[in-house]
Amino acid sequence: MRIGETGVEDRPGLMPIAEVLPGSTAEAGGLRAGDAIKKVNGKSLEDDLGGFLTGLMSPPGTRLKLTVVRAGTGEEEEIEVELGEWDLEEYIRKMTE
């Protein structure tokens, strides 16, 4: 997945998801573009930034519980995902396209 602009005034405390790559574990876990991550393993951006980011940067194979705010409805949903393999260079290339 690709993260969108953070700190957006209309969605404080959320990390927006700009894109979910086809075939990714994010897609398999049910994440969609436009959703926003509120918590990672119970840790929020506002209350525990380090814990939030550490969870997202965990090694492949790590299972995470994400609290997601759904696009369109604004409803919160808990989703479990397993982090897949990722290539930092490919990730940076996709973010700058």
CATH class category name? Mainly Beta
Pattern of helices and strands: EEHEEHEEH
Poorly predicted spans: none
Query: How much beta, percentage-wise?
Result: 25-35%
Average per-residue pLDDT, rounded, comes to 82
The best one-word shape is globular
CATH H level: which superfamily? PDZ domain
Question: How many separate helices?
Answer: 3
Q: How many distinct folded domains?
A: 1
What does this structure look like?
By secondary structure, the chain is an alpha+beta fold. It has helices at 25-28, 49-56, 88-95, and strands at residues 2-3, 15-19, 36-40, 43-44, 63-69, 76-82. Strands 1, 2, 3, 4, 5 and 6 form a six-stranded antiparallel β-sheet that branches. Strand 3 (36-40) and strand 4 form a beta hairpin. The radius of gyration is 13 Å and the shape is globular. The two termini are 14 Å apart.
Task: Describe the structure concisely.
The protein has 97 residues and is of the alpha+beta class. Helix content is 21%, strand content 29%. It has a single domain, classed as Pdz3 Domain.
Question: What keyword list fits this structure?
Answer:
Pdz3 Domain; globular; alpha+beta; single chain; 3 helices; 21% helix; 6-stranded antiparallel sheet; 97 residues
